Amino acid sequence: MPPSIRNAHDIPNDIIFHISEDLYDSPNGRIVLLQESTKNIKFTQGRTFQSYINEFCGVVGLSSSMLKFMIDTNKRVPDPRQKVRSSCVLIVNHSNNFNKLPNKSLKPALKQLLNEGSFSDVIVHVNGEELPVHKCIMCTQSRIFSNVLATPDIKKTKSENNIGQTSEEERKLVPILDKQYSSRKRLMDFVPECIHIVSEEYDDEKIHLKIIGHEIYMIKLLLEWIYSGDIILPTTMNEVIKLSELSEIFMIDDLTNRCQEDIINHVNVDNVVEILCNNSVPNEDHSNYLLSPIILKHCKSFFLKEFQEILLHDKDVEMKICKIPGLVTSLLTHKTESKSSSKKERKVTFSLSQNEIHSTPMVVDRYNDGLSSISGSSYDRSNLTRD
């Protein structure tokens, strides 16, 4: 039987994944999780069922297409887009078509293709290191790589045409771009300045791309996600932020969402100020990575909510946040609203003048003019006076 959390005091902060049958990595593969085992993921406000399912699948290393999830309380399949409002138990089984899946997954084969570089037709150059990749895979996973690599006769397109100029090849590419970008006039808006085509510098038949301004470690993580849809995220918050912005630059939306979920889940009173100070505005040499609007909004909201506790850890926090646009104003507004709210629930002490016996403090509702009862006492409202 799956664990019950109908009592909110049992496990108030977890989404529990209860494994109701042995889970395998493939129809004829190894067992990943045993029947009746559980996996817990910390409950966070605002996340959807799909968000928790993605995290669970990432932790156990299984594809969500192999699994079926049901809510314990009503035995129904959850709406992936629905936000989870409280702790719950999700029952996990293999999907109905699991046994029809091919015995060998394509993911390890693609990762092997990336690691070995076999049959590559594109070379990515990063900080002097060459990474052989495949045009057909890169184009299907990134709109930016698709825009760059789909250029007609790309080996004859000089690198300077990618930045600052509008060539005939670039103009031909504009119609294939997403509708949300159709109002822009120049392809340089769609091809980041960090990408340069340098094929003319080499005599082979492959396409050569040079990526500048990014660490080789981050580019390798990006490529691993493109090929497999699965990576182990960096352990430091700053590196996850870097990877998040890199995925936004190359328009890899699923990786962006994965990074943003991880950042939001790990924001706390110890790191929120550092995150906001280091990643909310560009530094002098524009070498830092900026937060996306979604993460920035969450960090600011968390900062305002937990300001008093943050202040206990860092007495200079108000000086540090001065450079963050709008945050000081938001903080002052938040403080004012908090004080106004606290006045509505102020305590007032009354005394019974008739017997000259002072009552215990009572909370008065200013709007309903109601008095809390005094235990063991009967009183006449006309005889009450305020101290």
Sheet with most strands: strand arrangement: 4-1-6-5
User: From the helix content, strand content and strand pairing, which structural class follows?
Assistant: alpha+beta
Describe the sheet with the most strands: 4 strands, mixed
Order of helices and strands: EEEEHEEHEEHHHEEHHHHHHHHEEEEE
The fraction of residues in strands falls at 5-15%
Portion of residues in helices? 25-40%
How far apart are the termini?
A: 59 Å
Number of helices: 13
Mean pLDDT: 75
Domain BTB: 120-235
Protein name: BTB domain-containing protein
InterPro entries: BTB/POZ_dom, SKP1/BTB/POZ_sf
Question: What features would you describe in this structure?
Answer:
With about 375 residues, the protein is of the alpha+beta class. The protein folds into 4 domains: about 15-100, Phosphatidylinositol 3-kinase Catalytic Subunit, Chain A, domain 1 (Ubiquitin-like (UB roll)); about 105-220, no CATH class; about 230-340, no CATH class; about 345-385, no CATH class. The protein has 13 helices and 15 strands. The protein has helices at about 50-60, 105-115, 135-140, 145-150, 170-175, 215-230, 235-250, 255-265, 270-280, 295-305, 305-315, 315-320, 325-345, and strands at about 15-20, 25, 30-35, 40, 65-70, 90-95, 120-125, 130-135, 195, 205-210, 345-350, 350, 355-360, 360-365, 385. A 4-stranded mixed beta sheet has the order 4-1-6-5, with helices on one face. Strands 8-7-10-9 form a 4-stranded mixed beta sheet. A hairpin with a 6-residue loop joins strand 2 and strand 3 (about 30-35). Helix 3 packs across helix 4 (about 145-150). The radius of gyration is 29 Å and the shape is flat. The N and C termini lie far apart (about 60 Å).
